[in-house]
Amino acid sequence: MTSTPTGRRTTIDxxxxxxxxxxxxxxxxDVWAAVTxxxxxxxxxxxxxxDPSTGSVxxxxxxxxxxxxxxxxxxxxxxxxxxxxxxSQVPGEEIVWHITLSLVEHEGITTLTFTQxxxxxxxxxxxxxxxxxxxxxxxxxxxxxxxxxxxxFGDYYPAHQQHYLDMFA
Length: 169
Fold this sequence. Notes:
Helix content is 23%, strand content 36%. It is an alpha+beta fold. The protein has an 8-stranded antiparallel sheet.
């Protein structure tokens, strides 16, 4: 399968970000569950542990090998089922990622807009962009009752890398 890069450059709160849209034939509550409930996340990206009411959870990617450490996700704002604002940081690294998920439903169709900052180094876009195209396509397949394993990361990286690097050049 070949894929097409879908991200676009945007600025939110003074931070350069990549934004992605995905559309689902599902109600907003269902899509919200797909991006916030640990067991639903585990189908396409990873799982979290902890108690969100404390303001943070530990998130571990499930499809990037065992060496990937858990990241602390801090919940900056949660307005269920429409908006979730997070920051995350990999232990031992200085980069703080700013992530926003916004959902809008119209006539039974829900659009998810996902944004992530690229950090202080625009070259990070070369990995962030292809990675989120890949994972968000896995989400779409999972929510359509398909097999997310049918999505091959090799179709996204390095194929999309230059597109995202050029976006922030």
